Amino acid sequence: MKIGFIGAGNMGGAILKGYAPFAERNGDKIFVYDKKEEVRSGLEEAFPAVTACGRETELVEKSDIVILGVKPNLFETLLPEIADVCTTDQLIISMAAGIRISLIEGYLGADKKIIRIMPNTPAQVGEAMTAICRNGNVGEDDFGHALAIFNSIGRAMEVEESLLHCVIGVSGSSPAYTYMYIEALIKAAQANGMEASKARVFAAQAVLGAAKMVLESDLSAEQLRINVCSPGGTTIEAVNCLFENGFEEKVQEGFQAAVDKSKSMTK
């Protein structure tokens, strides 16, 4: 497969870097265009499977799958530029928050195969969570190619487009909330005498292990939490303190703020 990335910033770059080793093993070719020449050349030098392109249209003409990684406010400029070189055989994948499939169809044509995704930045370490939705032109074979790309950098699941606002709250933006939690643990450990480098590892590994247990256990997250809390022990003391201070409610409020912002941005 020939896979093109238009835009290689935080998210597009994370997906490209995560997928590049798989592409090399699989014999896929990756094309990249970014407005910053140093980004293009840097990716070309770093990954044997990557070839830089000088224009967006050049990339589209060379690619079987085109992944649009530019910011949402650039779509109304980008889509008319590439419309004439997009074909009905290609798969167009957008990761822009707030840009509906119907808007992309309006520029590229209702006959085009269009997928919309909502990934997150852990793609760069092979642990992304990506939501995928598609229009009616995308058959199972094409959808299978998209799933293969995003499953190679973590996990991918199909959802209805109407759920992408929710996805932003639960996985698209939530790494930032998790970093805040880890940062708070690190600061608390330092305040109790642990050096920052060790606190970083202790806190991050604890979060990684807890997340893995949620994914691999048949128990609910609630039951896993209960199982750790021995009566009269240290964990129940901490959990009760967090409950009393509205920990769950504050996380849910942050989640909802991301969802509401996504809805307000939608075109």
Automatic annotation (TrEMBL):
Example of a GO cellular component annotation carried by this entry: cytoplasm
EC number: 1.5.1.2
One Gene Ontology biological process: L-proline biosynthetic process
An example Gene Ontology molecular-function term: pyrroline-5-carboxylate reductase activity
InterPro entries referenced in this protein's UniProt entry, alphabetically: 6-PGluconate_DH-like_C_sf, NAD(P)-bd_dom_sf, P5C_Rdtase_cat_N, P5CR_dimer, Pyrroline-COOH_reductase
Localization per Swiss-Prot or TrEMBL: Cytoplasm
Residues of the Pyrroline-5-carboxylate reductase catalytic N-terminal domain: 2-98
Gene3D superfamilies to which the protein is assigned, alphabetical: NAD(P)-binding Rossmann-like Domain, ProC C-terminal domain-like
Boundaries of every Pyrroline-5-carboxylate reductase dimerisation domain copy: 161-265
Catalytic activity, as annotated: L-proline + NADP(+) = (S)-1-pyrroline-5-carboxylate + NADPH + 2 H(+); L-proline + NAD(+) = (S)-1-pyrroline-5-carboxylate + NADH + 2 H(+)
NCBIfam families: proC (TIGR00112)
Function in brief: Catalyzes the reduction of 1-pyrroline-5-carboxylate (PCA) to L-proline.
Family per similarity comment: Belongs to the pyrroline-5-carboxylate reductase family.
Protein name: Pyrroline-5-carboxylate reductase
Organism per entry: Zhenpiania hominis
